[in-house]
Amino acid sequence: MNEPLHESVSEPMSTEPVRFDTKIAVLLRADLESWQRLNVTAFLVSGLGTTVPEVIGERYEDADGVCYQPMFRQPVLVFEGTKETLKAAHDRALARALPCAVFTSDLFATGNDRDNRAAVRAVPTADLDLVGLAVYGPRNGVDKVLKGARMHP
Questions:
Q1: Are 47 and 134 in contact (CB under 8 A)?
Q2: Exposed / middle / buried, residue 35 (Cβ in 10 Å: 0-12, 13-18, 19+)
Q3: Is-contact 45 24, C-beta < 8 A?
Q4: Helix, strand or coil for residue 70?
Q5: In the chain, what percentage of residues exceed pLDDT 70?
Q6: Given this model, what pLDDT does residue 13 score?
Q7: From CA 26, how far away is CA 45, in angstroms rounded?
Q8: In the chain, fewer beta carbons within 10 Å around the N or the C end?
Q9: d(C-alpha 85, C-alpha 29), whole Å
Q10: What contacts 24+ positions apart, CB below 8 Å, involve 125-130?
Q11: What is the DSSP string of 26-47?
């Protein structure tokens, strides 16, 4: 199913700025170490990219016609907050039925997907020790989910 990397994907270029009525956001717990922030962010956004196909743009192509993998079609905004902010954001995302991905503190001790899923499955929703959350949806809905969070420095 892999397409050749040299296949041309050129498309007409528009000069109009692209505006989105949706938002992709990651909320990280403020007390994470730098390596944890990067790891959690990468895992969380992969959850959105695999289940919400409209967030993925077209393949990239350089001037020599070499193609590269597509990425999100819009920016990913990264926020931080306290443990309580994450809990409240999670509750609001679930209440709004927005697509979201979670990363719990237990996942730092696992080393594979099967164990990751088992670690989350073992804990009731209200007791998840969240360290990160990714959410996608209408811009105003995501803004309401992130109430109390601040942009990542």
A1: yes
A2: exposed
A3: yes
A4: coil
A5: 91
A6: 63
A7: 8
A8: N
A9: 8
A10: 125/94, 128/90, 128/102, 128/104, 129/83, 129/104, 129/105, 130/29, 130/83, 130/86, 130/87, 130/90, 130/102, 130/103, 130/104, 130/105
A11: EEEETT--HHHHHHHHHHHHHH
Q: What is the DSSP letter of 7?
A: -
Q: How far is CA 147 from CA 61, 132, 144, in A?
A: 38, 15, 5
Query: pLDDT of 96-116, one tens digit each?
Result: 999 999 999 999 999 899 999
pLDDT over threshold 60, residue 10: no
Instruction: Give the pLDDT confidence of 37-85 residue by residue, as tens digits.
Output: 999 999 999 988 888 888 999 999 999 999 999 999 999 999 999 999 9
Helix (H), strand (E) at residue 93: helix 83-95
> HSE (CB half, 13 Å, CA atoms) of 7?
8
Structure tokens at 21: 């009525």
**Residue 149 · residue 81 · CB < 8 Å:** yes
